[in-house]
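hiii, so i know i said id send this last week but things got crazy w the move. better late than never?? heres the sequnce for the chain we talked about at the cafe, plus the structure i predicted for it. fair warning i was half asleep when i ran it
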Amino acid sequence: MSKENKHIYTLELTERQAKLLSYACDQFTRLIQGQDNAFQDLFEEAWEKRALLHAGDSMHKEWDGGWYNMRHEAEKIANDIKKRFWGLDRQTLNGIHYDDTADILWDIHRVLRHQFYLDRGDTSIATVDSENPTSSVGSEPLSIVRRADIPTEDLKADIARLYAEIDKCISDLVVARGKRDDKGISDAHWKMESLMVKAQQEFQVIYEFLSK
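okay and structure toks below
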């Protein structure tokens, strides 16, 4: 770690603050990348807020048709901005590795949204927030997030469960190697990487607890 980047910070947030931070990271990532839907979202939200503040006046006549015409206008303006400043045509976009700042913000968003997924008790694997990030896209290591209101007993249970998962993963890896099962070996390695990220989060929580 360089001298310019030697400090580690802990930030305590409410649930709403954490979700707003996640939203901000997602939105600003897309704005940096010049994604037109990010601009369009902001235009539409601003228009809807004005509509609520001025309910009953001529707000819905501004685009000669209200919300639907406004949405069409917002899409056109967003695409014009995208073309003018990013040189991108409609249906094209910049993604990861276009800008390191955007990549770092995207990593923060990924970690936070997965924590919200866990907090809901969701078990679906078909949604983007089910991804448990194991490696960073940007140049910074993945952020570590954990709910601060989890009782100590729950933490102990989490550690016991994690230990059991790691033990099983090691057993699966030994069996796969014995059978020369390349897919089994690959799956076990991928699972172990995910468990190591979880272990890092658990150790961070324990360290912070003991440091109080």
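btw The two ends are 25 Å apart (CA to CA). thought thatd interest u
miss u guys!!
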